[in-house]
Amino acid sequence: MLTVAEYEDLASTILDKYEYPFHRVVVRLSKKMKRGIAHVKISKKTITLSFDWFDCNGADFAVYILKHEIAHLKYPDHSPAFKRECLRMGIKSKAILKNKDIAKYGWHAPDGLKMDGIATRWAPRQYCRYEDCEELV
User: Fold this and answer.
1) Do the Cβ atoms of 71 and 37 come closer than 8 Å?
2) Domain of 85?
3) How does pLDDT run across 84-107, given as a tens digit for each residue?
4) 137 domain residue, yes or no
5) Which of 7, 34, 54, 133 is 20 to 30 Å apart from 127, CA to CA?
6) Which of 7, 13, 50, 52 is nearest to 26 (CA)?
7) Which parts of the chain are beta strand (E)?
């Protein structure tokens, strides 16, 4: 798992690559966020990430979710414009990931989380290097 500073640097790399008018966001990791994966406060340009989700997933997950949240900085809803922005950044625009989506990408859900009515089991911590994330941007 990356450090907060590395997530902020990664977000800046994404913002630069996709030509956003600003180049910094604040990233927070939350151990209290149990239901969601991430959320953005547009007015404060703050992205909060679920510690549990990011701890059990690797670089592709980190980049995918950061791109999704960054797209919300331009388009706060899941409108057609938001979906086009996600496609421009090379990701799908799904608002809620389901078990089949997680399995499709080879990601893990945190231990004990209920998804599609099924409690998830323990997921191993994933080793995530900044360099691996940077290559996926």
Assistant:
1) no
2) 4-132
3) 999 999 999 888 888 888 889 989
4) no
5) 34
6) 7
7) 26-30, 38-41, 46-50, 114-115, 118-119
